[in-house]
Amino acid sequence: MNTTTAAAEAKVTVATIRTWCRIGAVAAAKVAGRWVIDTASLARRVAIGAMKRPATQVQLTADDIIRLGGRRWQKGDMDRVYLNDWQDYIQGVEIDYYKTGNVCGAAIDGRGIANGRVAALLGAVRKVYFDSADGLLHINHYGADCVEIRYLDGQRTHLNLVARIFAGIKAAVAAAR
C-alpha cells in the first residue's frame, strides 16, 4: 500500500509513515520513487503503538532534529540544527518527485493539487531550524501561516503551513523515539 493509505489506516500523518519506512519501523521498499508498505508489518506497528501509553507533549532536542536528517551549524554562541528536508514533514501533505527533482504529484489531506501550486506552497518557507540556545523549533516564512490552496476540483481553502510543519516534525520525532 502507499503512504497515504497507510497513514489513514494507522491514523497517523504521511510524514510519520515515511519516517517509519526510513527507520525500518515498518517493512517497506521504494518502487519508482514511492514507498510501498507491507500491510502485515504496518498492522504490527499499529498494534505496538496501541499498547503504549497515550502520547505526552514532545519536547524537541537538537539530537531529535539530527535523527530526522538535520545538519548542525555552530558559530560563536549560536548552535542550530537546520532541517533541509522539512517538506517531508508537512502534516497531511504528500509530494512525490520525479528523479529530476520536479514534482510529479501532490495532495493535501488526500485531495490533489496542481503540481505548479506546490512551488508556491514550498516557497512560502525559507528555513526550518532548531535553536539550541532557546530550545525551540523556528520556521522562517513568508506568510506561511495562511497559504491559499486551490484543489484540482477548483475548490479553495487556507492552509496553516507553519502549524502543519510543527505537527509533522513533532509526530516524526515521537515515532522515532
Q: What's the β-strand tally?
A: 11
Number of helices: 6
Please write the string of helix (H) and strand (E) elements. HHEEHHEEEEEHEEEEH
Mean pLDDT over the full residue set: 87
Q: Going across the major beta sheet, what is the strand order?
A: 3-4-8-9
Distance from N terminus to C terminus (CA atoms, Å) equals 24 Å
Give helix % range: 25-40%
Mind telling me the C-alpha Rg?
A: 16 Å
Structural class: alpha+beta
Summarize the main sheet: 4 strands, antiparallel
Query: Low-confidence runs (pLDDT<50, min 5 residues)?
Result: none
Large-scale geometry: globular
β content, as a range? 25-35%
**Overall number of structural domains:** 1
Topology:
Layout: H1 3-10, H2 14-23, E1 28-31, E2 34-37, H3 39-51, H4 62-67, E3 71-75, E4 78-82, E5 93-97, E6 103-108, E7 111-113, H5 115-123, E8 125-131, E9 136-141, E10 147-150, E11 156-159, H6 161-176
Antiparallel strand pairs: 1-2, 3-4, 4-8, 5-6, 6-7, 8-9, 10-11
Report on the structure:
The protein is an alpha+beta fold and 177 residues long. The protein is built from six helices and eleven strands. A hairpin with a 4-residue loop joins strand 8 (125-131) and strand 9. The protein is globular and about 50 Å long. The two termini are 24 Å apart.
